[in-house]
Amino acid sequence: MPNRLSGKRIFITGAAQGIGLAIAEAYVAEGAGIFLIDQDAALLEQAACKLKGQGADVGHRSADITDAAAMHAAVAQAGEEIGGINALVNNAGVNVFAEPLQLVDDDWQRCFDINLKGAWNCCRAVLPEMIANGGGVILNIASTHAFTVIPHTFPYPLAKHALLGMTKSLGIEYASKNVRVNALAPGYVATQKVIDYWNGFADPEQAKAETMKLHPGGRIATPQEIALAAVFMISDECPFMNATCLTVDGGLSVLQHQ
Q1: Per-residue pLDDT tens for 189-232?
Q2: What tens digit of pLDDT does each residue of 60-82 get?
Q3: Which domains does the chain have, with CATH numbers?
Q4: Quick check: is 156 catalytic?
Q5: Bridge partners (DSSP) listed for residue 245
Q6: Terminus-to-terminus CA distance in the chain, angstroms?
Q7: Burial class (CB in 10 A: 0-12, 13-18, 19+), 77
Q8: Which of 49, 60, 94, 210 has the most CB atoms around its CB within 10 Å?
Q9: Per annotation, catalytic residue among 156, 174, 188, 197
Q10: What are the pLDDT digits (tens) for 85-108?
């Protein structure tokens, strides 16, 4: 069905590249209006210009999601440029990996500020208007780290576990207001973050090969494959899906070992 997101006006964070940009492109293809948030002003401008060139209804603002006032201002700007926001995708995030006792306080704070507090800032900014207008949809991009743990990736799994908890809590809290809150949990995805992760090893090619071997299908996801799931979860095709998480990892989290 074409135009599955017609009438949706979607606020997307971390939208200048990777999964966020792929989601934005998929939403535009389905008829949504979108408002893009990212800290990288140059990449954000490029992404917005590209989407506008495709005839999309697009607004954008370079801002820090950890700044609550900035998110309220961005939502107000979005209302002026594309109309009142009725869907939110909390995609912005950062990898903070360490051995627990080697973690410094600044990195702990950075992990939770971006991966959890930032998502809450965006939820808090959009929820009043959603409730006042009769409903909306929030999609938090979590991770398989939200329910599994890889050694030496502390405290990232803690933040993603907490994000999943926030998803469930807000979904229950506002279900009676016709606001659905769900999470999408990708595994490994072919983004720059994953490439940077591989490059952190002495032999990046070997690290990449080991990652591929973890997956039953012998490969990892593309950003576009995650975007397909994100279209479904924002659409009206799953009106009774609330306070839950959809895993899109090619079977990674099911396979015990090989």
Answers
A1: 999 889 998 999 999 999 999 999 999 999 999 999 999 999 99
A2: 999 999 999 999 999 999 999 99
A3: 9-186+222-247 (3.40.50.720), 188-220 (no CATH)
A4: yes
A5: 183
A6: 39
A7: middle
A8: 60
A9: 156
A10: 999 999 999 999 999 999 999 999
